[in-house]
Batch of 2 targets.
Target 1
Amino acid sequence: MENLSKILDIDHRTEVKQFQKGKILQHAGDAIAQTFYVKKGLIRSYIIDSKGKEHIFMFAPENWIIADVEAIEFNEPVKLFIDCLEDSEIIIFDKDCLFKADFSKEKMAENAQLLYRRLGKLQRRVLMLMGSPAIDRYTYFLDTYPELPNRVPQRMIATYLGITPQALSTIRSKIARSK
Amino acid sequence: MENLSKILDIDHRTEVKQFQKGKILQHAGDAIAQTFYVKKGLIRSYIIDSKGKEHIFMFAPENWIIADVEAIEFNEPVKLFIDCLEDSEIIIFDKDCLFKADFSKEKMAENAQLLYRRLGKLQRRVLMLMGSPAIDRYTYFLDTYPELPNRVPQRMIATYLGITPQALSTIRSKIARSK
DNA sequence: GTTATGCATTCATCTAGATGAAGAAATGAA
DNA sequence: TTCATTTCTTCATCTAGATGAATGCATAAC
């Protein structure tokens, strides 16, 4: 995961808020969708589907931003829950913080570039979900985000990968045995 | 699908190329990944997975752009095939056509905004793949892209949804019977 | 210490969708 | 028109992963 801090116009004057582990920053159904920049800590976004099951859309450790982009951009109802997996320091933005008129041209280009990078990552996510078995998605996850398994429980990695914790457990024991 | 023509600096001087239905514009493994703007016609991008199965990443009808963003942005090997589903008129761009220094500030902001919209669409795609059964993904597809079923065969819709043509056929007959 | 709550593992069963084969319907070329 | 090719549908079988339950293991609260 690459550093996305530059995507927002964050400087020393910006107000940082403290939240405890477990704090829910945004609920599905909220009237407005906000954007959260993680200065310190770890947060995640997830949906709860029609059967009550959780699916993690993304993790956001230090310097990442997280938002329900679909809700913000298309005025859809907010679908994503966002909560803290660790005690965190968060900067909260309203809609459209990315395209402020007083940004310099260079800043605009930077923002566009960083959005493009995230598009690339999401493209990969879609291709993995469609074309790779769970075990490949897991090993790719470990390669790409080597620090996360130390910070989040297995069951959350499972729901990020699109499988159940039991299935991930089975995959892990299979990998361990084959070594 | 919203109009993405403005994302590129397309004017009358730009060279348009003609391609016939079936023409492959980009192969997985190609040395450079290009960006394709569809002036007329219909193209698609897709991967072929380790078992030889096709998975369509996206369709691009008139005014859409298509590219292997991951390959372009992270210098990864090209994974996406791109080919013509109809006779098409295409404008081909090289890497980084979105962030040219001579773009105006307004153009930059527009480009960033359009990238953001596409992020919103991809977010939805991931959430649907993870959290919704195939039948819901199909009805959402019909709602969102009502013109595409008339232009592409069922089997391609199936591989876009992440299921086999047989499974889609079963879903369709189930829907037909329940009416 | 004891009790509780959450997490990971294992197993037995179930199911959505994959796979493979066959036939019917549509499309296209000669 | 005929013949070939592709697409769609149906069915029988198979499998990856879901579901649900039981067990063991932590960490935390009392």
Target 2
Amino acid sequence: MASHGMYRRRDDPRGRMASDITNDLRRYSVDAQHVGHAFAALHGLNATDLHALIAVMDAELAGDPITPGRLGEQLNLSSGSVTALVDRLERAGHIRRDRDTADRRKVFLHCADRGAALAMEFFQPLGSRTDQVMARFSDDELAVVHRFMAEMSASVREHRDAVRAARPESPRRTTD
Amino acid sequence: MASHGMYRRRDDPRGRMASDITNDLRRYSVDAQHVGHAFAALHGLNATDLHALIAVMDAELAGDPITPGRLGEQLNLSSGSVTALVDRLERAGHIRRDRDTADRRKVFLHCADRGAALAMEFFQPLGSRTDQVMARFSDDELAVVHRFMAEMSASVREHRDAVRAARPESPRRTTD
DNA sequence: TCAAAGCATCTTGACCGGCGAGATTGTCGG
DNA sequence: CCGACAATCTCGCCGGTCAAGATGCTTTGA
């Protein structure tokens, strides 16, 4: 079970480290994705629905409720898909629509109780596992990890935009 | 754009660090996923196809060609989906089927030239971006990152199995 | 001031394709 | 010959894209 670590020189110890870390990251990503998939299936939704629910939750907790349009940007979904998605989540009682009183074109998405409970149920055990791991690292070490991950995150984000720009087929942009 | 970092106490500086790292990881995962999606779309396949191609490539480079069954395990796909998937990839000239001479039930999947080229084209720029980031870290720092990611990876893997075991609906197992 | 054009946001409907479930075919081990 | 196993086939569902439409804000120009 290798990855693009395979395409490096493994004689050099630093190259070896690089490929190990690369593998770690990929395995983490894939498995994290599978966790989401399994959890979603367990509760009668699909992976997209769960991502959406999390986005709605995040936005709401940040005090800045999300709209279907912005949700579509974040999930890289077309507007039609978003409507169907929101329909599903609303029908299942996870979120509800609220029209903006100022600009009545807009629809704000809010977590209903079931949705909030589900998000907590998803994150709570994940969070405690994470805490367990982090407890085995010093503050300085965690700072290094943070610096590294922040840079990797920015880098892959740039790369994503570059790949998307390669052909103007889906000029979606995440607002940040 | 927060995440389950939201569900932590942010007064404690260590808790703050924890939630920052958690956010980094999630953003990385999501964006990495989007990179795959965009790249795949650019080449007329979907995300699953690309994952499969990578798995076939990895197995082949490891000297242990993969079978449709094991591929389905890795991608968490049903056997029917795998057949369709392999059909698509074979029709597109990315891989080819080879029956095992010993056990003629088994089919080995091998990368065709187009598939190998595509995989390289996917990983090469990603690898150089990664190298750029890593160049800004010392050996010791990278060692810390590796230790951290290895533990996180193992942890999320355990969690994945726990969630999957919650209901025996899709008792898929990655062979490791 | 106000009507009309223009833009933004969401929704609808038609269509397509991936995925899962179950039955089927071919193959190995006893 | 008989179970166990691997892959394939067939079918239906569901989520996705796309294009068009409905609604409401905003700007413009007499």
